[in-house]
From TrEMBL:
This is chitinase. Residues 1-30 form the signal peptide. It comes from the Bacteria. It is an enzyme of class 3 (hydrolase). SMART domains: ChtBD3 (SM00495). GO terms for cellular component: extracellular region. Its EC number is 3.2.1.14. It comes from Streptomyces laurentii. PROSITE patterns: GH18_2, TAT.
């Protein structure tokens, strides 16, 4: 959605057109329509995490999956993040999506995004064959049995009038195929906004849809990253932006009732600090205000960028893909917005807890450390829990014995290091995933005596100005600046301070 999104590129493959006509000639499938009011935060699909596990852990039923794009400009074949190793296939996210659907939720696959829209790999910008674009949309629809597709159109894609026209023509073809087969299909557009509604380029996308007879069911506004150097009350600005959208939709669709027009609107926030900086900070109080207002108006979709940012891991920091930049508990924004979905948040009938005992340990490079992963039934019946580890550094191998347990059981996690492991302290996240819930536990691993991390960074100097990402060495450790700083000594700013300890060297 912004330049922080992962930039992945690869080569193309071909999808046989013969397999992409199921809607026109086949029978209706059982894709379940989305609720009339839905909370669907974005999921960053390039992280290697399980969408079903994070959805369960956060209490979220629905997710917007980002992003689908071609691997190279000129291609007509979409992949997740443009990565040819992640094709549109039941083998890629298929089991996760089925799990979420079985829990009463679903996903909204999203085409485009900032990276695709600035590299010519948004499919309608990349592909000049309207029927092949429609085929690609159809393949996503039928592979994952979903009922809504999203078009995230920003920056360069807004100005590509030929791409705008092809996209809407392809949507019309897809909608005709769906109607012929009796399949439920919704199309949403996600567009940037001003505080008063769509800019002319965004409005032109919708006008072209009307011209082409393409039905737009929801228009989501990205109510952040205004970049106007103005003072912002982010909740109030959301309200004025969506009210402006409502007024624009009323002119485009004069036959619709007020309730129908509000039912076409959607809101996408960015929790905490957005890409512009602290002047555009969306707080938890803002979230509560927006939630109440959205319910009162009959807004269709509430979302934010992104689920992986919904934690307080970097308070005082800039915008990042994995934390909000403000002080908060993990899943605070999800818990505020989850009841927006008709039927409220997910409350698993069967649930469990997950712990790591001990929660930390130190090993010399070349040795192994262990911890016991414990589970316990907290609600309902015991369920099978699959275990996985993430955040494991280079030179370390994680293994579970056993790799799955019945809730109430334990597993031994072994972290085996090599002599080339990098000295430092690492947060290993253990995820336990069950049919109806998922939870995480953290183990802190400290490695000493490794050969992979000598103090090669320049020594810290008190008079030097450092910016985010720059590294220094100081008192036998390597350090990385989280944001702009000068005169602040590494090791004195605390856990949430400017300097991140990369470990001994």
């Amino acid at each position: 959605m912004r330049s922080l999104r992962a930039m992945l590129a690869a080569v193309t493959t071909t999808v046989a057109a013969a397999g992409l006509t199921a809607l026109a000639g086949g029978t209706a499938q059982a894709a379940t329509p989305l609720p009339s009011r839905v909370f669907a935060p974005y999921f960053e699909s390039w992280t290697g995490e399980s969408p079903a596990a994070l959805a369960a852990a956060s209490g979220t039923k629905h997710l917007t999956m980002a992003f689908l794009q071609t691997a190279t400009k000129g291609s007509c074949t979409p992949y997740w993040n443009g990565d040819t190793g992640m094709p549109i296939s039941s083998a890629v996210f298929g089991n996760d999506i089925k799990t979420m659907q079985a829990r009463g939720g679903d996903v909204i696959p999203s085409f485009g995004g900032y990276t695709a829209d600035t590299t010519g790999t948004e499919i309608a910008d990349s592909c000049t064959d309207v029927n092949k674009i429609a085929d690609a949309y159809e393949k996503v629809l039928t592979t994952y049995e979903v009922s809504r597709l999203d078009m995230d159109i920003e920056v360069d894609s807004l100005d590509d009038s030929a791409g705008v026209d092809r996209r809407n023509k392809a949507i019309k073809i897809l909608q005709d195929r769906a109607a012929a087969s009796g399949r439920t299909l919704e199309i949403s557009y996600t567009l940037p906004t001003t505080t008063a509604g769509l800019a002319p380029s965004g409005l032109a996308v919708l006008k072209n849809a009307v011209t082409n007879g393409a039905r737009v069911d929801v228009v989501n506004l990205m109510t952040f990253d205004y970049y106007d150097n103005a003072a912002h009350d982010m909740a109030k600005d959301t309200q004025t932006a969506i009210q402006g959208l409502y007024n624009q939709l009323a002119k485009l669709y004069p036959s619709k009732t007020p309730a129908q027009l509000w039912g076409m609107t959607g809101i996408i926030e960015m929790p905490g600090v957005d890409d512009f900086g602290p002047a555009e900070t969306f707080t938890l109080d803002n979230a509560r205000t927006v939630y109440d207002w959205a319910v009162s108006k009959g807004v269709n979709t509430l979302s934010f960028w992104a689920l992986q940012r919904d934690n307080g891991g970097c308070p005082g920091g800039p915008a990042a893909d994995d934390c909000s930049g403000i002080a908060q508990n993990t899943w605070d924004f999800s818990h505020i917005f989850s009841p927006f979905t008709n039927g409220g948040p997910t409350v698993p009938g069967d649930d469990f807890s997950l712990t790591a005992t001990p929660s930390s340990g130190s090993v010399t490079a070349g040795a192994s450390g262990t911890t016991t992963i414990g589970t316990a039934v907290t609600q309902g019946a015991a369920q099978s829990v699959s275990l996985a580890a993430s955040g494991v550094p280079t030179g370390v191998t994680a293994s579970f014995s056993p790799v799955s347990v019945t809730a109430g059981g334990t597993s031994k996690l072994t972290l085996a290091t090599t002599a080339n492991a990098v000295s430092g302290t690492y947060q290993i996240t253990v995820t336990g995933s069950g049919p109806s819930a998922a939870h995480t536990a953290t183990y802190t691993l400290t490695i000493t005596g490794g050969n992979g991390n000598p103090c090669t960074a320049a020594p810290w100097a008190s008079a030097t100005v450092y910016t985010g990402g720059q590294q220094v060495s100081h008192k036998g450790h390597n350090w990385k600046a989280k944001w702009w700083t000068t005169g602040e000594e590494p090791g004195t700013t605390g856990e949430w301070g400017v300097w991140q300890d990369l470990g001994a060297c």
